[in-house]
């Protein structure tokens, strides 16, 4: 009788141990699931933050691209790289300013450097303002020569085959430059619009 009782207790212990092991397994699995859910949530939050930042950068990209194109043009012009500057102009600009019969397509810029000698080897070049609207932009750059007053270039850019190209440029004094900064996007479009039959 005692042996049966002992045997019965043994069987009960075994059953309790099995249930204990199963219970522990359930707890461990639940813990793993919780950890996975937390990890997935963290990754989702991180991804949202990352893609949100990328989206912001993409939204600002046209303005940045227009400014970079304008500054590259001014840097090349001031460095005397007239052909490089010419290659950064629109087809309309080139049609209006090409020197017919001349050996150098970029002679237009060579003439500008002669007329505005302070542009060569400038000590500083900076953007004073920029207005970007869809496929049109105005970039105003200030060039500090080695001597004399600052030279202010007002660049009109247009998108051509998804690339920003200089479509027009003008030299301004300080007062005129301040007025140009107040231009609206609508005025930009009107000023950049090609004029038929206009040639040098």
Quick rundown:
This protein is an alpha+beta fold. 57% of the residues lie in helices and 20% in strands.
Structure description:
- By secondary structure, this protein is an alpha+beta fold.
- The protein is 57% helix and 20% strand.
- The chain has 6 helices and 4 strands.
- It has helices at residues 2-78, 82-87, 91-97, 107-115, 174-181, 185-192; strands at residues 124-133, 136-144, 151-160, 163-172.
- Strands 1-2-3-4 form a 4-stranded antiparallel sheet, with helices on both faces.
- It is rod-shaped and about 110 Å long.
In terms of topology, how is this protein built?
Elements: H1 2-78, H2 82-87, H3 91-97, H4 107-115, E1 124-133, E2 136-144, E3 151-160, E4 163-172, H5 174-181, H6 185-192
Antiparallel strand pairs: 1-2, 2-3, 3-4
Low-pLDDT parts are 1-8, 50-59, 181-185
SSE string: HHHHEEEEHH
Q: What is the general shape?
A: rod-shaped
Reported for the largest beta sheet, the result is: 4 strands, antiparallel
How many DSSP helices?
6
Residues in helix, %: 55-70%
* Strands, count: 4
What is the CA-atom radius of gyration, in angstroms? 35 Å
**Strand line-up of the largest beta sheet:** 1-2-3-4
Into which percentage range does the β-strand content fall?
15-25%
- Calculate the mean pLDDT score and round it: 74
Distance between the termini: 123 Å
- Structural class, by secondary structure, is alpha+beta
């Amino acid at each position: 009788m005692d042996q049966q009782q002992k045997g019965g207790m043994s069987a009960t212990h075994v059953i309790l141990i099995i249930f204990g092991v199963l219970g522990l397994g359930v707890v461990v699995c639940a813990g793993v699931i919780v950890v996975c859910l937390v990890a997935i949530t963290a990754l989702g939050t991180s991804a949202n933050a990352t893609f949100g930042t990328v989206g912001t950068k993409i939204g600002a990209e046209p303005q940045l691209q227009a400014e970079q194109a304008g500054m590259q043009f001014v840097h090349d012009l001031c460095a005397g790289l007239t052909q490089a500057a010419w290659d950064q102009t629109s087809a309309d600009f080139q049609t209006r300013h090409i020197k017919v019969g001349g050996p150098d397509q970029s002679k237009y810029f060579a003439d500008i450097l002669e007329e505005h000698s302070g542009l060569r080897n400038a000590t500083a070049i900076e953007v004073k303002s920029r207005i970007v609207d869809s496929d049109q932009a105005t970039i105003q750059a200030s060039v500090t020569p080695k001597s004399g007053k600052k030279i202010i270039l007002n660049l009109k850019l247009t998108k051509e085959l998804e690339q920003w190209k200089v479509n027009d440029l003008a030299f301004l004094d300080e007062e005129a430059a301040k007025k140009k900064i107040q231009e609206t996007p609508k005025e930009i479009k009107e000023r950049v619009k090609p004029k038929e039959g206009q040639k040098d």
